[in-house]
Write a structure and sequence with these properties.
mainly alpha; Isoleucyl-tRNA Synthetase, Domain 1; 3-stranded antiparallel sheet; 14 helices; 53% helix; 10% strand
């Protein structure tokens, strides 16, 4: 592997598939052969990425290849525009972006002396492409290892005449997988580097999704595999799904007993502290969803659902439903029904299932 390359077992998988397909056709290593090998590798990676995203219930409308920016001359157009504006210059064989003229401290290289562009240049071109496609809001999700380039890219986009306030940048910290207090780097199943597919195989889509979004993006996430696989209240996903399933079982029990659930009830009968507390939490649902969406912080909804489930468990423990006076029973059934709807809607928004039985 090259010194600064990305080593991984998947490289061998790509090579094996390529050999199976073409044999020694590209063995000479000519420029044409290398282009074909690169094309095959890119297509293989895209195929695997799409399969993994599908497993997680993630739909991507458009896959945009960075090479398109070069093929369509959009990167070169950015350089030309910066040059015309006096915001780019050549020095020591490299092309520099005059960020000092844009309010930042230091100028940065956008094309190395080798002719290779740095991250900043295609990122600026890609943001221009997004603006040209008419988006009102652009949400960038970066790993924390790219945080240093963000101010430069935003300054470059603004210098090209676009409103950088329409760009929202979310920086995610790195994730550490642990089990029994020790860091996990290798998959026990394959003996190779641990991938997202390995994680999905071990804990499932629901748990993986929830664990990824239950913390603020600025917080380092320690993904506890032991906790993720635990079938108890300690597992936050189990806790939420169990609350929904428990409510479903209440209605199943009522059906077995021949109890008819009425549509119109007397809410004034709900006077216990646990009932009032649950009602107050339910009234927050719409505002919480709106806040989480506007802030691009799904953990706000995660935290709320946990509070809601806790309020329901407290209500269920202290306030009997079946077996009390008819009007009170019907009011409590309605409270349970609304709670079930809120839990299901919240989990659905997060892309997590709401099982009726567990």
């Amino acid at each position: 592997f090259p010194e600064h390359g990305y080593p991984g077992d998947y490289i061998y998988e790509i090579a094996d598939e390529l050999i199976d397909k073409v044999g020694e056709l590209y063995i000479s290593g000519s420029e044409a052969d290398l282009r074909n090998i690169r094309k095959f590798g890119e297509e293989w990676c895209f195929k695997e990425i799409k399969k993994t995203l599908f497993r997680m219930g993630i739909h991507q409308d458009v896959f945009y290849n960075e090479s398109t920016l070069y093929e369509e001359g959009k990167v070169e157009k950015v350089i030309q525009d910066f040059m015309q504006k006096g915001l780019a210059y050549e020095k020591d064989g490299a092309m520099w972006l005059a960020l000092s003229k844009m309010g930042l401290n230091d100028d940065r290289v956008i094309v190395k002396s080798t002719g290779e562009p740095t991250y900043r240049l295609p990122d600026i071109a890609y943001h221009r492409e997004k603006f040209e496609r008419g988006f009102d809001l652009i949400v960038d999700v970066f790993g924390s290892d790219h945080i240093a380039t963000v101010p430069d890219v935003l300054a470059g986009v603004e210098a090209l005449g676009y409103d950088k306030s329409k760009i929202r940048v979310i920086i995610y910290q790195f994730i550490t997988l642990t089990e029994n207090g020790e860091q996990v780097k290798m998959s026990k199943r394959t003996g190779k580097s641990y991938t997202l597919d390995d994680l999905l195989d071990e804990v499932g889509n629901d748990v993986a999704r929830y664990f990824f979004i239950m913390r603020n993006s600025t917080t380092h996430l320690e993904f506890d595999l032991g906790l993720a696989k635990e079938q108890s209240d300690k597992n936050p996903v189990f806790y939420l799904q169990y609350a929904h399933a428990r409510i479903c079982s209440i209605f199943d029990n009522a059906k077995e007993k021949g109890i008819s659930i009425k549509e119109h009830v007397n809410y004034d009968l709900l006077k216990e502290n646990q009932e009032i507390n649950l009602i107050k939490e339910l009234m927050r649902f719409t505002d919480v969803v709106k806040s989480a969406a506007l802030a691009c912080e799904p953990q706000i909804l995660c935290e709320y659902l946990h509070i809601l489930a806790s309020a329901f468990h407290s209500f269920y423990h202290d306030c009997r439903i079946i077996g009390v006076e008819e009007e009170l029973m019907q009011a409590r059934f309605k409270l349970a029904e609304v709670t079930r709807t809120a839990l299901k809607n919240g989990l659905t928004i997060l892309g997590i299932s709401a099982p009726e039985r567990m």
